[in-house]
Design a protein that fits this description.
alpha+beta; four-stranded antiparallel beta sheet; 19 strands
């Protein structure tokens, strides 16, 4: 999967005039993806340009009047109040020009927003609008997935998810082409299991993935991890009389004694023990609830295979 997925839409609403890409298309930054009907926005631009012209004319007139009344005031031929009114009209006209130019810039921007360009290169993974459809501002028109940054996405069972760690190196190859391999690093581990499959999603960032590892390709991952010695015994060998699980250890004279063990994992029919037993130890696997410390047992000899 692509690491970065962008839902791209217009910044203004309108009727879709063209859509130049379909699912699977590869695009480059700046490519035209779709466009809206620009008629209304062209009209708004024309109106905004007219407002600027009108506001500029009003400013020129107000500036001339302010200059004349300023001279008359200096010569004592007009009252202060009349000049103050002319100055106020000039300031109002100046503000009108600023507002008209701001509206013109907004109209120009909105006209530019009728064309939807790709913000980055990538591949189209979904479309949300067709030609003739009216869309609202922000509505997804094209979903663009980055092709450069890709993740290998794996579903890991609950038995093994405990071994997954962020930053763990992973070897990844294509199922269809095992010779195409890359290195990856675990970057995300889902905290919740999928409600349907019961598995956990693990995302592995691929380092310089080749073009053959396209989005949607099936990949296989392998992790090499430093292990430790463990012992697997039948579940019937575990004696649980307190907080610590125990097993009956058979001594050289066939007497038994309880020894505590640390259980690493409970499986369906077996138990994996990480500490408490050593190589060569003999334990009782049947009737563990009927024994006492020091009791002697008979060891059955296995038939030669």
């Amino acid at each position: 999967q692509a690491r970065y997925v962008k839902n791209i839409g217009f910044l203004v609403s309108g009727r879709v005039l063209t859509r130049n890409v379909d699912v699977g298309a590869s695009v480059k930054k700046g490519d035209l993806l779709a466009s809206l009907d620009p008629v209304d926005y062209n009209s708004r631009l024309t109106a905004a340009q007219s407002q600027v012209t009108s506001a500029q004319a009003a400013l020129d007139q107000a500036a001339g009047e302010e200059s004349r009344f300023k001279q008359l005031l200096a010569n004592g031929f007009t009252p202060q109040a009349r000049y103050d009114q002319a100055l106020k009209d000039l300031q109002t006209a100046q503000a009108g020009v600023v507002g008209a130019k701001a509206n013109l810039k907004l109209a120009q921007d909105q006209l530019g927003y009728t064309q939807l360009h790709a913000p980055t290169e990538g591949v189209v993974t979904q479309t949300g609008a067709n030609v003739g459809q009216v869309v609202q501002a922000g509505e997804m028109v094209v979903q663009l997935s980055s092709f450069n940054d890709r993740d290998g996405v794996f579903s890991i069972s609950v038995i093994y998810i405990g071994a997954a760690k962020v930053g763990m190196p992973v070897k990844v190859w294509m199922q269809a082409k095992p010779s195409v391999t890359v290195q990856g690093v675990v970057r995300e581990i889902s905290p919740n299991a999928d409600p349907v499959t019961g598995t956990y999603t693990v995302k592995v960032t691929l380092q310089d993935p080749p073009a053959d590892m396209f989005i949607g390709a099936v990949v296989v991952g392998e992790v090499s991890n430093q292990g430790r010695e463990v012992v697997t015994v039948p579940a019937s060998a575990i004696l649980q009389t307190g907080d610590t699980p125990e097993v009956w250890l058979v001594s050289a004279d066939n007497s038994v004694k309880k020894v505590p063990v640390k259980v690493d994992r409970f499986n369906t029919d077996t138990v994996t023990i990480s500490s408490g037993l050593s190589k060569g130890d003999r334990i009782v696997t049947a009737g563990v609830n009927a024994l006492n410390d020091g009791q002697k047992v008979t060891v059955e000899k296995a038939d030669a295979q």
